[in-house]
Amino acid sequence: MRTATVGEIQKNFGKILKEVHTGEEITILRRGKPVAKLTILGPKSNIDWPDFYAEALESKGKPASQLVAEGREERL
């Protein structure tokens, strides 16, 4: 595990993310004291994603695109 300062993280965020993606754990220091730890989340298969499609509500009436178009016409 390596350490990095807040400034180093801000300047090299892309590089730091690549290191984390390879499995490196990084402790973030602010004024020499640890404040956070960056680690990889793991494979997407292990993440419990909610089923947004199943939870979606069926809309009734006009499609949203039509409502937006009508709202724009009213302002012009």
Protein model, in words:
This protein has 76 residues and is of the alpha+beta class. It has a domain at 1-41: YefM-like domain (YefM-like fold, 3-Layer(aba) Sandwich). It contains four helices and three strands; from the N terminus they run βααββαα. It has helices at 6-11, 13-21, 52-55, 64-75; strands spanning 2-5, 26-30, 33-38. A three-stranded mixed beta sheet has the order 1-2-3. The N and C termini lie far apart (59 Å). The model has no long low-confidence stretch (mean pLDDT 88).
Mean pLDDT: 88
Sheet-strand content, in percent, reads 15-25%
CATH architecture of the domain at 1-41: 3-Layer(aba) Sandwich
- Helix/strand class: alpha+beta
Major beta-sheet overview: 3 strands, mixed
CATH topology of the domain at 1-41: YefM-like fold
Sheet with most strands: strand arrangement: 1-2-3
User: What's the N-to-C terminus distance?
Assistant: 59 Å
Short description, anyone?
The chain has 76 residues and is an alpha+beta fold.
State the main characteristics.
20% strand; 3 strands; 3-stranded mixed beta sheet; YefM-like fold; 41% helix; single chain
Note the topology:
Elements (H helix, E strand, L loop, with lengths): L1 E4 H6 L1 H9 L4 E5 L2 E6 L13 H4 L8 H12 L1
Parallel strand pairs: 1-2
Antiparallel strand pairs: 2-3
